[in-house]
Design brief:
Radius of gyration: 27 Å
Largest sheet: 5 strands, antiparallel
Distance between the termini: 70 Å
Shape: globular
Strand content: 5-15%
CATH class of the largest domain: Mainly Alpha
CATH architecture of the largest domain: Alpha Horseshoe
Number of strands: 23
CATH topology of the largest domain: Serine Threonine Protein Phosphatase 5, Tetratricopeptide repeat
Strand order of the largest sheet: 4-1-6-9-8
Amino acid sequence: MKRLFILLCTYGFLSLCVAQDAHFYLKNGMQLTWELSTIDSITYVKPDAEVLLPASCTLKAGSKSKFSYMVSEGIASEPIYPLSTNASVAYVYQDTLYAVGIGQCVIHTTYKGVTSSCVVTVEPTHEMGNLATLLSYAALATYSTAEIGAYLSQAVTTLSKTQTALYPYRNGWNFGQDVHPHMTWHSLHMIPAALQLQSEAEAKGYKNVSLIARTIQLMATMLATDLYGDLPEANMSMFVTPKYKTQQEIYDWMFKEVEDLLVAYQSSDYVNCSTNLKIDTQLDPIYGGDLSKWASFCQALKARLWLRKLPNWDNTAANCQKIIAAVDAALTNWQDPLYQYTNDSYATSCPWGETAPYPAQLFNNNLYRSIPTTFFLHAILGSIDNGLQIDRTGHALDPRASRMMAARGNRVSMLHVESNIGTTTDKVLTDFPNLYSSTNPYTQNTGYIALMTTEELMFIKAEAQYWAGDIKGAYSTTVEATKESMKRYGIEEDLLSDIDPNAYTGGALDQYHRFFNIKLPNANKFTIADLMQQKYAAMYLQPEQWTDMRRYNYSSSENGISYVHPTAGHAPVYVYDVKHVHNGRRATFAQDSVNFRLTYSLRRPYNLYEPYWWTADDFGVNASLSPNAWIMRINPSPTTYALPELQRLGYYTVDADERWQLNPAILRKRMIWAQKNANIVTCADNTPWK
């Protein structure tokens, strides 16, 4: 007969269990009851080896409860993995139960084939605590969108190139199955949650809570529609067949909603409402309830929204000025909306972080198996290949490279590979840079998720200036936005100094100036390619990186899509043809600039998503060069309740045996903002873009 010993410890939350009289159930139907406040440990004899859990418990959001367990052998002879049915509500990590979001879930623990379960209820800490939950969802939706974009925009890839499993690039990505269920949930199902919060807040007279919830709903809707296109109605039930709205209808609503919100943020009826809830940093960890800051963020969302008009949709001087005005209004009272992860609150660990909880089950954070692509590290950041380190100048032209990622061991160069091609058998993961860098604010365990950044706003303004014909203004704003991006990684011109500037050139300050002299020399040579390439670098691990590439239709000489200069008769510009790529030759610092003369053209990833690009007939003429051969959107998850509507919209087909199949044409269908509606874009493949 085996013995089971249990020691249950809590961090001052014993009184938070369902009752002082806590119940522990055994698989064989027997039951134990004891008073938690008086019992430290229990020894119980039972015939089956089993981890003992309470039948249920209730915790406050942000709290945590620790329990440890032993089996009769003294040390568990098999791993014990407590799994949560909804890790966004609560989960167990390193024997600690974390209460994250408002709601209910079940923790299942299996040992030697016997499963025990505990129903966990997480309650708000105080009135309208679900505002804090909604903001945590907003951060996760931002992360989830960026996580997919990091792969599809070719910032990172992996060693493997097979097409047989679920994850992107590491083993390929089967678009016929659910794609990142956690992303679908946060991007889509958080919208009804925002609506519910609005309804509850309005009923209680908390108009400030309602305003914040509406702003988050707007942000989440934009993230979702720019991934999927058409979306189900926001007030749908999760378990009935939803009615989908077209992306045009969704954008019509967003354009109206952002204006209504900005009016409300200026209204005393909302801002100074006598029944407003007092919001602190526990309820609002981003702005602490400061509606003036939320109003600025709303202006920033307006700028991001109207940027979709450029360059293809409705590229007019008036719309450019509207974008510029929105950015200027946002920056007047701007504070980056950062969701901080501190490890001592209910924001436990950054999902980009190296030890983020549940990396496989909840976040699918693939950075720990990922490596940088040739496009990102070699072309955009200007890494120096062939093991060269040029005259004390580091591993790359861009000083951000060594802050975004860290060279491993004694390596003197930062290796990379083409997207989705895989590597030769002599290479292992540790040959490549470590993407968890202590100097990257996004990949630290106590880092943050930025809902938007100062540099993104500045790049939005620069793009509007460019298409409005203000090339000098666009150049100046781009330079300042790039400097702002460098500042995020701790690189500031005023703080840089050379060890001995009289002894040699090539110190930190010279490197900083060298970058701008090569990449952004002056306004006369400035094009939209220079702007968007610097924005691409600044948007590393940010959701807009992939959206930007799709807005410009992956423009490169490889796919034949180019954009013309707005004022001058210059030759057409390929936005993602990078002209300052290192040639691998050793040189002194004074001669270094001549070595950054190669051109790299963005190409479609190798071995892309077979079988959906199986033959040339699937994507038009010119095979991989075709602008219609690139992925433009993610397919909605084919959940049972949604399949009839998704079939009607053409996302899925059903065969004679009632088996559902993804329609691969959906993945190449352009968003409304990427379709060819302007004469400034030319393409090599005349296959219709709509």
